Amino acid sequence: MLFRLLGEVTAEREDGGIVRLGGPQNRALLAILLLSAGRPVSVDRLIDLLWDEPPATARNRVQGLVAELRRAGVALATRAPGYAVATSPGQVDLFRFRACVERARIAEPPTAVALLIEALNWWRGPALACVDLPVLAQSLEEERLHALESRIALELGLGRHGAVVPELAALTSEHPTRESLHQLLMLAQYRCGRSADALETYRRLSHRLAAEYGISSGPELRRLQESILRG
């Protein structure tokens, strides 16, 4: 069985058939257990993550969700103080993504780029889509962005400055206050001979940070701006 967390929470049988997991809470409970990588998750922790205000029947409801997932064919084990999913890393898209990222860390740049592309291809949309686990989903999104930034930084190191500018322009529009993406865009623009564009990128970010959060850009970004000004 292949479990997918990087997009909608789904499960597929070896023949490609889709497993009927049930409703959003079934999928949320499964996602929590899969994210624990085989370690048991306590019933109390499951209740805290599944409900903002747990009902009096929360423990019985967790038992019911576990039973429904077991009937669907998911190998859930009862392990004190709660439950765990019996899987191998190769059965979960998230762990395949992470394995590619780890291999990229020690690879030569061209191979590392290919591995990060392979890693990012496991994503089919926002992580944990269609379940209400915002904190866990945001943590996974950070992993995706870090992998994406690593890939782009490697591309810059290989001299592919012009190729990444359009992608970075789109990414900074999606994440208008993320300094690391703006720094990569400024560097790409500068190396393409577009110093004025790089400085405008810095100006826009600085204005937004000041307007929305009352803060200035970080020291790395300021040093890059100063370097561009010096030419």
Automatic annotation (TrEMBL):
GO terms for molecular function: DNA binding. Residues 16-85 form the OmpR/PhoB-type domain. Keywords: DNA-binding, Transcription, Transcription regulation. The keyword Transferase does not apply. SUPFAM superfamilies: C-terminal effector domain of the bipartite response regulators, TPR-like. InterPro entries: AfsR-DnrI-RedD_regulator (IPR051677), BTAD (IPR005158), OmpR/PhoB-type_DNA-bd (IPR001867), Sig_transdc_resp-reg_C-effctor (IPR016032), TPR-like_helical_dom_sf (IPR011990), WH-like_DNA-bd_sf (IPR036388). Residues 92-229 form the Bacterial transcriptional activator domain. SMART domains: BTAD, Trans_reg_C. The keyword NADP does not apply. One of its GO terms (biological process) is regulation of DNA-templated transcription. Gene3D superfamilies: Tetratricopeptide repeat domain, Winged helix-like DNA-binding domain superfamily/Winged helix DNA-binding domain. Belongs to the AfsR/DnrI/RedD regulatory family. PANTHER family: TRANSCRIPTIONAL REGULATOR REDD (PTHR35807:SF1), TRANSCRIPTIONAL REGULATOR REDD-RELATED (PTHR35807). This is AfsR/SARP family transcriptional regulator. It comes from Lentzea tibetensis.
